[in-house]
């Protein structure tokens, strides 16, 4: 089952974010706290959203996203910040269902796209995304400024 996250899901999302950081070989990079997630997702004016995958009553995956905007399309889109499913339940369709829910939301709201980034070495994720028909945007390079 896929559903919007609730405040009660924050501790589990936080734990899954740490599992994702371990998987991405960056366990010390997570600086956020549970309160940061609670405020971002459920504060007075949330700008970040999450959906969770539930298996036998337990949250086993999440998609955390926010709105983007395309000047060329003149419409919002969804930017998927993180998609993660616990390794012990991978292969059961939860990742696909989470992405399908974001695609459904984008279509329902008239958004122009759903997009995300993936680490170049993450061949399992790249294979998964390609199996869904997603296309890499190889002509773009991500840049970042930090304080």
Automatic annotation (TrEMBL):
Gene3D superfamilies: 3.40.630.30. Signal peptide: none annotated. Pfam families: Acetyltransf_1. One of its GO terms (molecular function) is N-acetyltransferase activity. Keywords: Acyltransferase, Transferase. Coiled coil: none annotated. Residues 1-147 form the N-acetyltransferase domain. SUPFAM superfamilies: Acyl-CoA N-acyltransferases (Nat) (SSF55729). CDD domains: NAT_SF. InterPro entries: AcTrfase_GNAT_prd (IPR017255), Acyl_CoA_acyltransferase (IPR016181), Diverse_Substrate_AcTransf (IPR051016), GNAT_dom (IPR000182). Belongs to the acetyltransferase family. This is GNAT family N-acetyltransferase. It comes from Actinomadura barringtoniae.
């Amino acid at each position: 089952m896929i559903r919007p996250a609730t405040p009660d899901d924050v501790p589990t999302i936080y734990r899954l974010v740490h599992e994702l950081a371990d998987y991405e070989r960056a366990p010390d990079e997570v600086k956020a706290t549970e309160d940061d997630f609670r405020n971002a997702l459920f504060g007075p004016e949330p700008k970040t959203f999450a959906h969770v995958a539930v298996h036998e009553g337990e949250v086993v995956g999440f998609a955390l996203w926010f709105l983007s905007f395309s000047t060329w399309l003149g419409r919002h889109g969804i930017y998927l910040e993180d998609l993660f499913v616990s390794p012990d339940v991978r292969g059961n369709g939860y990742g696909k269902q989470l992405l399908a829910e974001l695609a459904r939301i984008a279509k329902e709201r008239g958004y122009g796209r759903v997009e995300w980034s993936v680490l170049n070495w993450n061949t399992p994720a790249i294979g998964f995304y390609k199996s869904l028909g997603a296309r890499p945007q190889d002509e773009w390079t991500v840049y970042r400024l930090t304080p």
